[in-house]
Amino acid sequence: MDKFSVMVISSECATPLLKNIWTEGVLPMPRPQPTEYAPYYGTYIQLVPDGDINQILARQGDATVAFLSNLSEEQASYRYAPEKWSIKQVVGHVNDTERIFTYRALCFSRGDPTPLPGYDQDAYVANANFDQRSMAHLIAEFQHLRAAHLVLFRSFDEEMLGRRGIANNVEFTVRALLYAIAGHELHHRKIIQERYL
After folding, report:
1. Residue 171: beta bridge partners?
2. Quick one: residue 115, left, alpha or beta (phi over 0 = left, psi -120 to 50 = alpha)?
3. Distant-in-sequence, close-in-space partners of 180: CB < 8 Å, separation ≥ 6
4. Domains in the chain, ordered, with CATH?
5. For the chain, N or C: smaller number of CB within 10 Å?
6. Per-residue pLDDT tens for 111-131?
């Protein structure tokens, strides 16, 4: 075990309280309309299947963990070109982005009118230590983030989901951000499958 070792959770081994995060019913949530996000984010949102977005995020998270857990440390450190990120860096980027999008969703859901900044994904990766961390730690971080975020997302009612805010000079609804989180994860999982393995 390395210094970053932490408890790993999944929908299969969660406590009864956490189990409800994955299985508890919620209000039906329609897909976001194009007026709820900038066209760029449509690339991610269109990847998300129809259904309860919270259940999709839970199942999808488990599938991503299972997929990533089969990679060796050598595979996780691989770059398909010198200037490209390693798989570890891709996973770290997914984790960072989920945190940022969730913070945006939290602010907007609470009616905070403060415009939020964008972020430079390349600078975030360059200034992180993803390649020095074990893949197991990065996966565990992803799992804990997803579990905590699902608790928050399931607390949003219909009014909260429809609230809007500005981030990176773009208007989003809370609902669109949840779909963007799911689509961003799928986008990067597909890139790993197609370009790294």
Report:
1. 166
2. beta
3. 37, 41, 44, 45, 101, 172
4. 45-196 (1.20.120.450)
5. N
6. 999 999 999 999 999 999 999
